[in-house]
Each structure stands twice: as structure tokens, then as C-alpha cells.
From TrEMBL:
<dbReference type="GO" id="GO:0046872">
    <property type="term" value="F:metal ion binding"/>
</dbReference>
<keyword id="KW-0862">Zinc</keyword>
<dbReference type="InterPro" id="IPR027476">
    <property type="entry name" value="DppA_N"/>
</dbReference>
<dbReference type="Pfam" id="PF04951">
    <property type="entry name" value="Peptidase_M55"/>
</dbReference>
<protein>
    <submittedName>
        <fullName>D-alanyl-aminopeptidase</fullName>
    </submittedName>
</protein>
<dbReference type="InterPro" id="IPR036177">
    <property type="entry name" value="Peptidase_M55_sf"/>
</dbReference>
<keyword id="KW-0479">Metal-binding</keyword>
<feature type="binding site">
    <location>
        <position position="104"/>
    </location>
    <ligand>
        <name>Zn(2+) 2</name>
    </ligand>
</feature>
<feature type="binding site">
    <location>
        <position position="133"/>
    </location>
    <ligand>
        <name>Zn(2+) 2</name>
    </ligand>
</feature>
<feature type="binding site">
    <location>
        <position position="60"/>
    </location>
    <ligand>
        <name>Zn(2+) 2</name>
    </ligand>
</feature>
<keyword id="KW-0645">Protease</keyword>
<dbReference type="InterPro" id="IPR007035">
    <property type="entry name" value="Peptidase_M55"/>
</dbReference>
<dbReference type="GO" id="GO:0004177">
    <property type="term" value="F:aminopeptidase activity"/>
</dbReference>
<feature type="binding site">
    <location>
        <position position="8"/>
    </location>
    <ligand>
        <name>Zn(2+) 2</name>
    </ligand>
</feature>
<keyword id="KW-0031">Aminopeptidase</keyword>
<keyword id="KW-0378">Hydrolase</keyword>
<feature type="binding site">
    <location>
        <position position="10"/>
    </location>
    <ligand>
        <name>Zn(2+) 1</name>
    </ligand>
</feature>
Length: 274
């Protein structure tokens, strides 16, 4: 078995606000250790469950957060930015399944540090299905016929995953009180939970079907203000839906839709407040 693991940061145990996930803030270095150890519980359990190869993609911010020296020695780590496929870089049909660790709920939902890629996105739609990072990444996995076996994060992240993917295993390491507060397990307790859930997810992998994307997906991104939509609309092939802040793009497949989303996010971030 060959397992793919994408590791974000906002859904990691005990991390609740920007001081934990921003590399310029005082809590960040502590958070990197917790994040790395949490990923390592999943990696080690995967090897113990019979995986012969585990590929881990660092998927937060500049994507160089995981401390490679703390990981299981057989881990293959994808690290750094820029990546053509960002949070799902390196994912292809050779994997038996995917696991998302440290994930968070999409922007329009409750949950600890909920958002979708950038704060300029309010909603992302694939045809008529609202998705965040979790759902969009699961669609890319489904393009390669790879099922999403497990998602770890807060309770709202687990709910989002369960609505999209029947029989997915979820590991809830914290329960949201607000967007910047939670009731959290300790890292030791979370590590035990993640180890158990990883073993279960791999055991039940045949019970989960890939989230198959539509053949020619229509990507629609709703921005928080019109200036962001204007910037995103500079990408060829896009159009702003009149009377809205929604920019749409007709993609030939989910991979093109994903890269279009990445380009529009980079353009939209150039918007200034005034």
C-alpha cells in the first residue's frame, strides 16, 4: 500500500488563532512541533498497518512548516512553495488512499480558523457543490480514483467531510467554541486518537469510494468584495457574473479548475483595502 497525506495547520490539536499558524507570531514554533508530531502519529501508524510507502505534502502557507528531522525515517516529504498543485502536489493514481491532517472547515461555515485558501474567498463551487480546501482536494484525489480515507481536524471539519464522503473516517482533535477558541485534546491524547483512527481508516479503505469530480466542471468563486473579483477576472477565460462578486471559469477537468482557483487566489490577494 502507498498512502498520500496532506497536512494543513489550522486543524492541528490546540491551535486556535493566527498566533499559532503565522510564522511571524510568537506561538508558531511551538505549533510546528505539535503539527509535525501529529503528522508523525499518522505516518507511523500507516507504516505499522502495512503501508510500504508514505508521501507527505506540507500544505500550510509557504508549505515549509513540518520538521523533517522529527518524521518517521521512511517518510517522503514534499515541502516548499511554489507547487503546481499546492495542497495536493504529488497525488496521483499510484496511491491506495489519501489522508488529510490538520484540516479546517470552509469559509462560510463555523469552525476554528475556518476559511477557503485565502480570506478573499467566501464560497467556492464545483458546479453546484460548495467546497472548501477539503472538498476541492478530495475532488482532485477522485480524479485519480483515490479515495479520501480519513480527515483530522475540529468537529466542523469532520461534519463537512462526512457530508461529502460516505464512510470516511474522521478524527476530531478539538471542538470549536468560536472561530478562535476550542475545547482541545492534549497532544498526547490526540496522538493516540490519530493512531487508532489511521489504523481503522486503512482497515476500512474498501468501504470508501473516491469523490469523483464532474467531467467538465464549472468553477465559481464568490469573493468578499468586488475589487477581488476584478483582479481574478484578469485571468483569461473567466467572467464576472453580473450583479455579484462571483467569478466563473469553465474548466476542461478538475485539474484545470484547481489551477485556475490557485491563479485567481494569487490575483485577488493584490486587492488593497482602499
Amino acid at each position: 500500500m502507498k498512502l498520500y497525506i496532506s497536512v494543513d495547520m489550522e486543524g492541528i490539536t490546540g491551535l486556535v488563532d493566527h498566533t499559532h499558524v503565522d510564522s511571524n507570531k510568537h506561538n508558531y514554533e511551538r505549533s510546528r512541533i505539535i503539527m509535525t508530531d501529529e503528522a508523525n502519529h499518522v505516518i507511523t501508524s500507516a507504516f505499522n498497518a502495512g503501508c510500504k510507502e508514505v508521501v507527505v505534502n506540507d500544505s500550510h502557507s509557504k508549505m515549509n512548516n513540518l520538521l523533517i528531522e522529527r518524521l518517521h525515517p521512511e517518510t517522503q516529504l514534499i515541502t516548499g512553495d511554489v507547487k503546481p498543485f499546492s495542497m495536493v502536489q504529488g497525488l496521483d493514481e499510484s496511491f491506495c488512499g489519501a489522508v488529510f491532517v490538520g484540516y479546517h472547515a470552509r469559509a462560510a461555515l463555523k469552525g476554528v480558523m475556518s476559511h477557503s485558501m485565502i480570506f478573499g474567498f467566501r464560497n467556492i463551487y464545483i458546479n453546484d457543490v460548495a467546497v472548501g480546501e477539503l472538498g476541492f482536494n478530495a475532488y482532485v484525489a477522485g480524479y485519480y480514483d483515490v479515495p479520501l480515507l480519513m480527515v483530522a481536524g475540529d468537529d466542523y471539519t469532520a461534519f463537512e467531510a462526512e457530508q461529502l464522503i460516505p464512510n470516511v473516517t474522521t478524527a476530531v482533535v478539538k471542538e470549536s467554541i468560536s472561530r478562535s477558541a476550542a475545547i482541545s485534546l492534549t497532544p498526547a491524547k490526540a496522538g493516540q486518537l490519530l493512531s487508532e483512527k489511521t489504523t481503522l481508516a486503512l482497515k476500512n479503505r474498501n468501504q470508501v469510494k473516491p469523490l469523483t469530480p464532474p467531467d467538465r466542471p464549472l468553477l465559481r468563486i464568490e469573493f468578499t468584495n468586488y475589487g477581488e473579483a476584478e483582479w481574478a477576472n484578469l485571468m483569461p477565460g473567466t467572467e464576472i457574473i453580473p450583479g455579484t462578486t462571483i467569478v466563473q471559469f469553465q474548466a476542461k477537468n478538475i485539474l484545470e479548475a484547481y489551477q485556475a482557483m490557485l491563479v485567481m487566489s494569487e490575483l485577488a490577494m493584490r486587492t488593497t483595502f482602499c
